[in-house]
């Protein structure tokens, strides 16, 4: 009868301990949400300032911060690849997964400088009446760079033969223009990518304009695939640093979980089947936990903080408690 009564006492202690710990967690979360609500206006102002800064950056003629649309459906991402069958085949052959797709459009000012009456850039036997008498003229494309300076490169050319028949009097052509793009991709803390694009054209065929960069107006669209579905990862070993508490002691330890459930391996909601060891004073306690929940998703600063129950063996007794753990 004495043994049965002491067992009731231990059970009551465990219930009280668990209730107090649960109350502390709930109180802490409510306090955090209250504090967070006080900063909503400041955060909204910050978002507006960031949006204004992005729009200011877009003003630069050939530099663009392309907004990235985040999607979870692969069909939206594949829509940008509908005309790239060969590219899709190559991606499949290399066993690659498409994560980010974008389109970039560069445009040139429609105005071309060809002023009648201007001196030709090159002449051959001018004024001789020779059938091969010719006048060569470059046709320029011009843009204004971010400093306000006008940049021009020859875009096309024309040759006129004043002494030939009407059908043979003109020759025209386009220079082999090289289009170049610089792309820089950055990743935010939440995993979203941002893309910075700069585009320009060069005429390296013409010796006078070789190396000159004609800025292009840029329009870009990028789509990023972000997985939203969750799944079980039956084999996902993860080592964690723990803070463990029972009705009698508090200690630190290490644990190893074998499985998990969440969006990705590094973004789990739960971890399961966990074995560990607790160090408290001179005692070593071996423990087992069926699972733990990631409360870090609702907390600032830390992304992965798990809480879960455990049962431990402290020779010759079994102990019960709760564990807070942070994976390495």
Q: How would you describe the shape? A: rod-shaped
How many domain regions? 2
Structural class: alpha+beta
Element string (H = helix, E = strand): HHEEHHEEEEEEEEEEEEEEEEE
Strand arrangement within the widest β-sheet reads: 14-15-16-17-18-19
| Beta-strand percent range | over 45%
Number of DSSP-assigned strands: 19
Determine the N-to-C terminus distance.
47 Å
Low-confidence stretches: 55-59
Largest sheet: 6 strands, antiparallel, barrel
Classify the helix fraction into a percent range: 10-25%
Question: How many helices?
Answer: 4
Identify the quaternary structure here: single chain
C-alpha-based Rg, rounded: 35 Å
What is the averaged pLDDT score? 78
Short description:
The chain has 328 residues and is α+β, with helices and mostly antiparallel strands. It has helices at residues 2-38, 40-58, 74-78, 85-93, and strands spanning 63-66, 68-71, 100-107, 112-113, 122-124, 134-144, 150-160, 170-174, 178-187, 193-202, 214-215, 217-225, 231-233, 238-246, 250-264, 267-280, 283-294, 306-314, 317-327.
Describe this structure in words.
The protein is an alpha+beta fold. The chain has two domains: 62-227, no CATH class; 230-327, no CATH class. Helix content is 21%, strand content 46%. It is built from four helices and 19 strands. It has helices at 2-38, 40-58, 74-78, 85-93, and strands at 63-66, 68-71, 100-107, 112-113, 122-124, 134-144, 150-160, 170-174, 178-187, 193-202, 214-215, 217-225, 231-233, 238-246, 250-264, 267-280, 283-294, 306-314, 317-327. Strands 14-15-16-17-18-19 form a six-stranded antiparallel beta barrel. Strands 4, 5, 6, 7 and 8 form a five-stranded antiparallel beta sheet that branches. Strand 9 and strand 10 (193-202) form a beta hairpin. The longest helix is centred in the N-terminal third of the chain and has 37 residues, at 2-38. It starts with a helix and ends with a strand.
